[in-house]
Amino acid sequence: MPRSNRPRGRQGGRRDEEENGLDRLLAGWRRTEVRRGTEWNVQPVSSLQAQKSYVCPGCGREIAPGVSHLVAWRADGVLGDAADLAARRHWHESCWRIS
Fold first, then answer.
1. pLDDT digit string (tens) for 20-59?
2. Which DSSP symbol is given to 29?
3. Distance (Å, rounded) from C-alpha 90 to C-alpha 7?
4. Which of 5, 22, 73, 97 is a plausible cystine mate for 88, CB 3.0–4.6 Å?
5. 3 state SS of 78
6. List of long-range contacts for 56-62, beta carbons under 8 Å, 24+ apart
7. Beta bridge partner(s), residue 91
8. Statement: residue 77 has pLDDT above 50
9. pTM of the entire structure?
């Protein structure tokens, strides 16, 4: 009899549960904030994840690789989700708080 390559029993279900758990964990870091009447998605970037250099729109200074910071983009979807994501900006945490 030929061998079946389909996942059996618990293994397939467990993999789905792990992927859903990871999605939930990553989504848990993102939060929504309202600033000056506009809703924003805000997601922290750890120092280990920060691998590129960015310019903070709050102070105009560089956010060097290896420095933890925030990424913010509009959550209202006025221009569509793709446009909102393309317009996201990287901020120093302190600059975001005082903006």
1. 555 544 544 889 999 989 999 999 999 999 999 999 999 9
2. H
3. 42
4. 73
5. coil
6. 56/90, 56/91, 56/92, 56/95, 57/89, 57/91, 57/95, 58/91, 58/92, 58/95, 58/96, 58/98, 58/99, 59/92, 59/95, 61/92
7. 70
8. yes
9. 0.69
Q: State the average pLDDT over residues 73-86.
A: 85
Q: In angstroms, how far apart are the furthest CA atoms of the chain?
A: 69
**Tokens standing for 15?**
């993999």
Cβ atoms within 10 Å of 93's Cβ, excluding its own: 15
Average confidence (pLDDT) over 10-26: 50
- pLDDT for 73 beyond 50: yes
Cβ neighbours of residue 56 closer than 8 Å, sequence gap 6 or more? 62, 63, 69, 90, 91, 92, 95
Residues in the chain, total: 99
Long-range Cβ contacts of 63-66 (<8 Å, 24+ apart): 63/90, 63/91, 63/92
